[in-house]
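Propose amino acids for all 525 sites.
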């Protein structure tokens, strides 16, 4: 099956219904289909053909749904990019992927211009805003790009002659064809373009929907659609016949209001969003009784945070695990199965996992090793990067780089990122163990643990802690707390109090930034 089939089958199955709610406006699934067809026709008219790359770089807007579906109809490849990235990062992705067209919004246009300011060639830029100032735009007929400038056109003008929504070209698209190239965050080097085929993404959406008990209703679109987690959850909408309230950015009180207004039963989020909901004192002003569960992914969910959320909102937190290279969902908790705190559930249908040692030997139950994944959801490789592709793909098995274990019932537990393990005096220390412990302290709001170079022991343990409002807890108190609950070699050498933890656009803590901060601290013995 192909990604564009998701919407077509949705209309055939459920008929016309409100699909997207956005700031007082409503768009049906048929509205989305018509807009997608016009965009596809526009792209064909611009010379976009099968295999070409088209970037989408903007906040969550209804147009993102239209554009994604429009691109897939041409056989071109979607390159989703977080609009929060720096201009030089956007430029790198555009150059590396060979992007020909960029869809964006006026709010991001300045950054796009900056990205290509020193270039004598640039992709054509399509702005989705109808209220874009004419001074911001070049005439659609302009075919030449002058040095230091980009050709910019308005979407409504570019599709003006496509109002019948008929796509003039017919493209033969196979499920093995690339549908998306999603660039990794680059936390361990230059971003890599993960190639995901129609089969990768469609199969993962079907499997993800199957564990949702087919529940139809209105959910919240708080995950960035430029992130693989948000992209796949948007595909699940079509399969379940659900609706979505789209948010350009996460706002706690707006989320509370939407839950109350639309009687939202469930939605997908990241731990940073769940933490923000828990910490916001205004929750009592809203009727949130409809909320039954929240799916959590993309970053580790502290057990203490999930427990506190469950107690306050009477709603479960179902933690799952995934990664971009797996489209992304690998494991999840689901209705009707036991919930095990600290676990990320069991493999979704069609996905297999293994835990192996450094030599590739399978580890026994309860033993820690590297997590490998196999299934129709696994990437075919990195774009124009055969070296990295061969490093992570061993036949059908994907090496995730995550350390994990399984219990006797097949539940998966992520211990840590392989690269995040701290080796102190020859002993392996898993930061997540320490983070879970510190999160249980009543004065701790958030925590991240990293290793710092040590001439004597190789590495030392540094914990970055965000205090809860009004807390006066000091370093010695937290050190004693750790020593009371952990082996001495696992306790931090230093605790650093910070106002907030550095995060990327989807809320994942940037541990590389913290390691860089720790590296310039006075050297630890």
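Proposal:
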């Amino acid at each position: 099956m192909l990604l564009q089939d998701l919407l077509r089958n949705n209309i055939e199955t459920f008929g016309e219904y409100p699909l997207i709610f956005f700031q007082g406006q409503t768009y049906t699934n048929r509205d989305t289909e018509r807009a997608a067809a016009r965009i596809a026709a526009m792209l064909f008219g611009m010379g976009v053909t099968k295999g070409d790359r088209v970037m989408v770089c903007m906040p969550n807007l209804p147009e993102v749904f239209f554009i994604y579906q429009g691109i897939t109809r041409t056989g071109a490849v979607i390159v989703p990019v977080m609009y929060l990235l720096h201009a030089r990062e956007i430029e790198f992705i555009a150059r590396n992927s060979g992007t020909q067209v960029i869809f964006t919004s006026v709010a991001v246009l300045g950054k796009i211009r900056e990205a290509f300011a020193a270039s004598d060639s640039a992709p054509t830029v399509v702005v989705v805003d109808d209220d874009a100032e004419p001074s911001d735009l070049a005439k659609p007929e302009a075919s030449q790009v002058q040095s230091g400038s980009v050709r910019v056109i308005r979407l409504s003008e570019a599709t003006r002659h496509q109002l019948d929504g008929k796509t003039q070209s017919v493209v033969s698209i196979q499920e093995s064809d690339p549908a998306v190239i999603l660039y990794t965050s680059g936390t361990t080097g230059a971003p890599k373009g993960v190639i995901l085929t129609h089969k990768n993404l469609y199969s993962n959406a079907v499997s993800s929907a199957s564990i949702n008990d087919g529940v139809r209703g209105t959910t919240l679109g708080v995950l960035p659609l430029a992130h693989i987690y948000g992209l796949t959850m948007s595909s699940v909408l079509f399969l379940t016949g659900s609706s979505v309230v789209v948010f350009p950015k996460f706002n706690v009180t707006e989320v509370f209001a939407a839950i109350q207004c639309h009687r939202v039963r469930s939605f997908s989020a990241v731990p940073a969003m769940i933490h923000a909901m828990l910490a916001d004192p205004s929750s009592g002003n809203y009727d949130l009784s409809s909320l039954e569960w929240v799916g959590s992914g993309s970053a580790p969910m502290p057990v203490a945070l999930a427990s506190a959320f469950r107690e306050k909102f009477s709603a479960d937190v179902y933690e799952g695990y995934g990664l971009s290279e797996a489209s992304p969902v690998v494991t999840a908790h689901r209705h009707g199965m036991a919930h095990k705190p600290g676990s990320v559930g069991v493999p979704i249908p069609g996905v297999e996992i293994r835990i192996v040692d450094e030599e590739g030997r399978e580890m026994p139950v309860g033993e820690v090793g590297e997590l490998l994944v196999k299934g129709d959801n696994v990437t075919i490789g990195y774009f124009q990067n055969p070296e990295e592709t061969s490093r992570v793909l061993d036949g059908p098995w994907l090496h995730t780089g995550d350390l994990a274990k399984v219990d006797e019932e097949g539940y998966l537990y992520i211990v840590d990122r392989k690269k995040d393990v701290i080796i102190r005096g020859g002993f392996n220390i898993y930061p997540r163990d320490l983070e879970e412990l510190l999160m249980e302290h009543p004065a701790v709001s958030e925590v991240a643990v990293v290793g710092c170079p040590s001439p004597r022991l190789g590495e030392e343990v540094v914990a970055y802690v965000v205090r809860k409002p009004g807390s006066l807890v000091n370093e010695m108190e937290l050190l004693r707390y750790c020593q009371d609950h952990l082996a001495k070699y696992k306790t931090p050498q230093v605790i650093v109090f910070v106002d907030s933890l550095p995060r990327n656009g989807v809320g994942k803590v940037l541990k590389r930034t913290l390691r860089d901060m720790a590296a310039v601290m006075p050297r630890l013995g």
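Residues 482 and 491 are 6 Å apart (CA to CA). The two ends are 58 Å apart (CA to CA).
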